[in-house]
Every structure is written in structure tokens, then in C-alpha cells.
Specification:
The chain is of the alpha+beta class. The chain has helices spanning about 1-15, 30-40, 60-65; strands at about 45-55, 75-85, 90-95, 100-105.
């Protein structure tokens, strides 16, 4: 654990940051990238309710942890909930590693997370 933290600190001070761990929360830049990708693909005016990490699947993660040198690093994927016109709720996933929208669907009969707006 302390070696991992030391590696992070070296990356921060040398301006060469290693890629985030697959379970690290999305960075502000990754969230911005996910929103930009969706806005390019979808013409609706959208309010982004949540943009969070869609965690790698267990088998993919175990393979990478077992042999990180030879196994493919799990892709960073954003799980997105957005609200469109008429209170329509959309759920989607964005592959941040490939820069593309993986899934996008309107979900009927649900309400997104209620959150306080900016103050």
C-alpha cells in the first residue's frame, strides 16, 4: 500500500501521472470527457444527474490483477444518468478509454437521484 502511494506522489511531482487504478473514481477530466461524448452523439438538451465509474467486471479485473504486465488493463467506463426534456430519464455508458458511447437508452417509470443544485 505504501509503495502504491509513493508511486502516486512521484507521478504528481514529476508531472507524469500513471493511469488511474481501475477502481479509482472518475476524475473531473474523465467526467467532462463523458459529457462531451454524449453531447456530440445526442442532440437533446440534457441535464447530467450522475456521472460515475462503471466498475470493471470481476473476471476482467482478476485477470489484470493476476498478470498486470501481460493482461489488458480494464477500460475506464462512465455510467451516466441524464434528464432530458419532459423529465425523460436516460441511462448510458461511455468507454473513456476508446472515447465512444457504448449504450444509451430511455428508462420509463423511474426518477433519477434527487440532488441539490449549486448554491
Amino acid at each position: 500500500m505504501s509503495l502504491e502511494r509513493l508511486t502516486q506522489l512521484v507521478g504528481q511531482t514529476s508531472e507524469t501521472t500513471p493511469p488511474p487504478h481501475p477502481f479509482d473514481p472518475l476524475s473531473a477530466a474523465e467526467i467532462e470527457t463523458a459529457v462531451t461524448i454524449i453531447r456530440k452523439e445526442k442532440e437533446d438538451a440534457l441535464f447530467f444527474n450522475t456521472v460515475t465509474l462503471w466498475e470493471p467486471r470481476k473476471a476482467e479485473m482478476l485477470a489484470w490483477l493476476e498478470t498486470p504486465e501481460s493482461s489488458a488493463r480494464p477500460h475506464r467506463v462512465a455510467d451516466v444518468v441524464a434528464i432530458g426534456r419532459g423529465s425523460k430519464v436516460f441511462d448510458g455508458t461511455v468507454d473513456l478509454s476508446e472515447g465512444r458511447l457504448l449504450a444509451w437508452e430511455q428508462i420509463d417509470g423511474v426518477q433519477p437521484i434527487v440532488s441539490a443544485g449549486p448554491r
